[in-house]
């Protein structure tokens, strides 16, 4: 049984830079965070990605954790927010169809339109430029990171497919993707004005 005091001790150690404390916190809460996220996004791979994103955000901001609530409560709030943000970015916006009518020739007309959040030409151009910029950065990463990022995000391989392609364990794939994403975030943050 996890105790709040044990969590507080691990958090204190993590703030001081103890990597094994981070690992212990990850191991304690990874499954429960994953299942919370999976219930929201309903996709295994997205839930795995968002689980690592949740821990990356939590560990980056661990000094901001205030122990008035349990660590798990704080972690679950980060996970929920990350999941909701993900769904917002990856869902088509729609307006409900409230009624329709038929004219004298049998053509059906809808009172409301379905509105897709498709980008306009300017937004498409900006996205393409950002993608090119990110691809350039990825090409300059360590070869292991470059391979997993290219396969996962540009060629849309599953974790299993990447493991088979590179002949490495699936756990190694997940760790490399997590570390590569963290490195990419850092690089992109430093170069945000260029994209």
Short recap of the structure:
Strands 1-2 form a two-stranded antiparallel ribbon. It has helices at residues 4-15, 19-41, 44-60, 71-89, 121-139, 143-154, 159-166, 170-190; strands spanning 100-102, 108-110. Helices cover 67% and strands 3% of the residues.
| Poorly predicted runs | 92-103, 105-117
State the shape: globular
Q: Please name the fourth-level CATH homologous superfamily of the largest domain.
A: RNA polymerase sigma factor, region 2, helix turn helix motif
| Strand arrangement, major sheet | 1-2
Quote the distance from N terminus to C terminus. 47 Å
Strand content: under 5%
Number of strands: 2
What portion of residues is helical?
Answer: 55-70%
Order of helices and strands: HHHHEEHHHH
**How many domain modules?**
2
- CATH architectural type of the largest domain: Orthogonal Bundle
Structural class comes to mainly alpha
Number of helices: 8
């Amino acid at each position: 049984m996890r105790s709040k005091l044990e969590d507080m001790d691990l958090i204190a150690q993590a703030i001081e830079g103890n990597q094994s404390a981070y690992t212990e916190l990850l191991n304690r809460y990874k499954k429960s965070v994953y299942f919370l996220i999976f219930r929201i996004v309903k996709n295994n791979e997205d839930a795995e990605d968002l689980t690592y994103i949740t821990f990356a955000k939590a560990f980056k901001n661990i000094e901001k954790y205030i122990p008035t609530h349990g660590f798990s409560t704080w972690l679950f709030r980060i996970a929920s927010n990350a999941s909701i943000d993900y769904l917002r970015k990856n869902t088509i916006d729609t307006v409900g169809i409230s009624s329709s009518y038929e004219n004298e020739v049998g053509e059906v007309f809808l009172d409301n339109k379905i509105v897709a959040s498709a980008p306009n030409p300017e937004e498409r151009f900006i996205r393409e430029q950002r993608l090119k910029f990110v691809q350039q950065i990825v090409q300059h990463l360590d070869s292991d990171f470059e391979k997993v990022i290219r396969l996962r995000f540009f060629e849309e391989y599953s974790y299993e497919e990447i493991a088979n392609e590179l002949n490495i364990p699936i756990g190694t794939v997940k760790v490399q993707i997590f570390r590569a994403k963290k490195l990419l975030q850092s690089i992109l943050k430093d170069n945000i004005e260029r994209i």
